[in-house]
Amino acid sequence: MKKKILVFLVMLAVIAAFPVFAGGQQDADAGEEKPYEIAYVLKSQAQPFWEHVRIGGMNYAKEHPDKINATLYAAKDDAAVEEGLAILENVIVSEPDAIVMALINPETMSTIVDKADMAGIPTIMCGDSVKQWTDAYEAEFLSYDYGGGEMAGEFFVNYCKENDIPLKGKVAVHSALAGLISLQNRCNGFQDKVLKLAPDFEFVDWVYSDVDPMKEVSLTQDQISAYGDDLACIYLDAGPTLPAAIRVFDEQKVSDDIVLIGWDSSPEAITGLEEGQLKGLVLQDPFGIGYNCMEAALNVLEGKPVKKDNLMPTVIFTKDDVGTQEAAEFLDPTLIEIK
Predict the structure, then answer these.
(1) DSSP secondary structure string, 151-179?
(2) Chain CA centroid to CA 46, Å
(3) How confident is the model at residue 44 (pLDDT cuts 50, 70, 90)?
(4) Of 86, 176, 221, 251, which sits 20 to 30 A from 100 (CA to CA)?
(5) What range does the domain containing 45 cover?
């Protein structure tokens, strides 16, 4: 009888030595589930767009502190590709429960996503698409770039009509970076819509600033000089170099002769709208992108269904929109940031 009691006590001791897991990660000491560790890898610390994405994702994490512990990583600027790739490599080695990541480099992102997948780490793509290279991601959230380009094209033609500007002349497209599908879609959408509505416009060869503001200054100056009165519009597909073009328009006093349209908010872009150098500003919803990405990461980890490919709508603002409540929500997510 004593032997049976001793065996029973030993079994109880063995059972007590192991934590009980049920539906999540368990804290052995506290008896409570630990939050999931989610790595939040953004493209840059410098650009307002990525700052707004940061706020959206971190707001969601802070709304769910019992379920998510999000750690932020970002390179110093959009052009710091090697730094961004090194961050991602190190994050994978650290084995978080999930990664929400921006597209750092189109040529190598499929390798990164595939590597995370082989390590059993689900990935959510934030702000750009990788589906042309791999399907190993769980979900992606990005702006409807082609539609935003179409919106900009329609705005340009309507602006010309409303201001008695002839529907002819040369149109220049300035892209921030070659090879990025999201930027190609923004430019194609713009060009397709303009030519559909006003086929007498002539698009000159696209030029690329390589996310370099000084190069953008040169490109803008050169095209204003080369095309003169024939230049009807300059269209920029990304925010980092838009302030440079605005500065050239201000210095050369060409805002009444050439329509400048760009993407993404910044203090310089808002000032450009107010002062008239910039006629139209296409805005994404970076806060919404970040928020939805973090929510999707949690849903994946909890085994809930998640839609794989998600397009977020864009809007276009003009001088008349600055100061409205709608503009405030898009332009300054710090107003609703959870500290």
Answers:
(1) HHHHHHHHHHHHTT--S-EEEEEEESSTT
(2) 13
(3) confident
(4) 176
(5) 33-143+286-312
